[in-house]
Amino acid sequence: MTNKNLIDLEAMSVKQIDKLVKKAKKIMQSPADYRHACDGKILATLFYEPSTRTQMSFQTAMLKLGGRTIGFDNPMNSSVAKGENLKDTIAVISGYSDIIAIRHPTEGTAMAASLYSEVPVINCGDGGHLHPTQTLTDIVTLSCEKGRLDHLKIGVCGDLLNGRTVHSLIKALSKYEGNSFVLISTPELSVPIYIIDILEKNHCKYEISNSLAEAVKDLDMLYMTRIQRERFGSEEDYQAQKDVFVLDKEKLSNAREDMIILHPLPRVNEITVEIDDDPRALYFKQAQYGMFGRMALILLLLQDEDFVLNERDTFISEHHCKNARCITQSEDYLPRRSYEKLGMQMCDFCDKRMD
User: What's the whole-model pTM score?
Assistant: First the structure.
């Protein structure tokens, strides 16, 4: 099948991202024109991990386009509880549906699912790896609120190591000319090296900061993220990190009046509730933009024959992926697909080094 799977936003060109944003804006302006755009189509939402916004926004997006939804939000209510592997689940459900949206706690699962699906697969988050549709939400919000996606100074704060939303956002916005980044985190939660490699490859300026109060002073956008309790090995490690960066009125007083604050949600305590009434706080409006972005994505994947995503060159490696969080560790029938990067063999599923 021609590649119509959105696994990693890296596969989308700037032209394709801009096309999606344009489509989302058209839907916002004339939603009635799209009420029957997906009549007779079925979206399957397979959520192996808790979700509120992503799952419901996909379901709402399909319903507003005239389609229907099936799926599950608890794998224990499916045949997964009986030991069914991912391949069999996807092979069956792709026969029931026209498009699949999947979230899973294991890295590389969406890529694995795409190998066995007869319909387009959308990655709605795979562990601490990627979350491309959240990034589309962020990009639609940025374009609507700032009027551009280039020449922006972007601060990202919180769990930059495990934050899949951060990884996808940096990868996407680094494609646009003149963007620079301030990476705000503790040393223990700094971004993975492969994200730094992408910034340097795209000639993006970046700086590392451990002071939120200082970093906000000249930003166009501040992207706050929660410290992800579920990604820590122990409660002690989580407690040591959870309250290091909290955006409150005192810190926000240092920021520009035209800076916007985004957050993928859910929020825990990294933005105080008193910030919600500040006109710069757009995280609830951001969630609404996300629904329109997902409507646009569904339409492009199902109806636009020219909307074909790039595929990287892969080969079968002699090595096994050593990442304990990779889907290849639990689904041992998967091929040892890899790609080459800077002379290294990288796992095609989780993007970690194999050799």
Answer: 0.89
